[in-house]
Amino acid sequence: MSEDYVNIKTNMPWYNTNDIVYLILYQYLMGFLAKIKNRDFVGMPMMSKTKADEIGAVYDIDESDYVAREVPHPCAGEEVYSLHGLDENDELVFSEPRRVPEDAMVMTVPMDRETVFVDMPATLESLIAAYDAADWDEKSDWWAKASQIVPHMWD
C-alpha cells in the first residue's frame, strides 16, 4: 500500500463506509475539543453569520466589533521597517528603521455585520451532541454541517 494512504482497520463491514467516515469526523471533533476545552485562550475563528447559522455554530455578537475605534499602536516605542520590494538580485529591500512614538494610536477596522466570531469549544460540543442524538438516517445531515467546521480548526 502506498504511504500516501491511511489504512484504517475497523470491526465494521465495508458497506458501512458512511458510518466509518462519520465516526472519523466525530472522533476528530472530540480530540480537538479535548485539546482546547480548558485553555485560557482558544481563538475564535471568523465566518459569515449565514454559514455559522447553517452549521449550528455558537457565537456571541459583540457590538464593539462593528465600530471603528482608536487603540494603542501595537508597535508603540519600537523600531519598524517597511518592505519596499525586491532589488535586481531578488533580495528584499527594507527602509531605514523608524521608531513608532510611544503614544501612537491606530484605528481598528470594524467587522461587517454579516461576520461573526465563533465560540469553538461550544460549537464542537454542540456538533458532538448532535451526532450522539442523531438517528442513523440523520448522520448525513450531521456530516454536511460538521465537516464545514474543519477548515476553521487549527493544531
What do you see in this structure?
The protein has helices at 17-36, 49-55, 120-133, 139-146, and strands spanning 46-48, 70-72, 79-80, 83-86, 92-94, 98-99, 105-107, 115-117. It is of the alpha+beta class and 155 residues long. The strands form four sheets. A two-stranded antiparallel ribbon has the order 1-8. Strands 2-7 form a two-stranded antiparallel sheet. The longest helix has 20 residues, at 17-36. The relative contact order is 0.22.
Question: Can you lay out the helices and strands and say which pair or pack?
Answer:
Blueprint: H1 17-36, E1 46-48, H2 49-55, E2 70-72, E3 79-80, E4 83-86, E5 92-94, E6 98-99, E7 105-107, E8 115-117, H3 120-133, H4 139-146
Antiparallel strand pairs: 1-8, 2-7, 3-6, 4-5
Helix pairs in contact: 1-3, 1-4
| Biggest sheet record | 2 strands, antiparallel
The low-pLDDT segments are: none
Strand percentage lies at 5-15%
What's the overall geometry?
A: elongated
**Spatial extent as radius of gyration:** 23 Å
How many beta-strand elements? 8
Order of helices and strands: HEHEEEEEEEHH
| Span between termini | 28 Å
Kindly report the average pLDDT value. 89
Structural class: alpha+beta
Strand order of the largest sheet: 1-8
Kindly state the percentage of residues in helix: 25-40%
Helix count, DSSP H or I runs of 4 or more residues: 4
Annotation keywords:
two-stranded antiparallel ribbon, alpha+beta, two-stranded antiparallel sheet, single chain, elongated, 155 residues
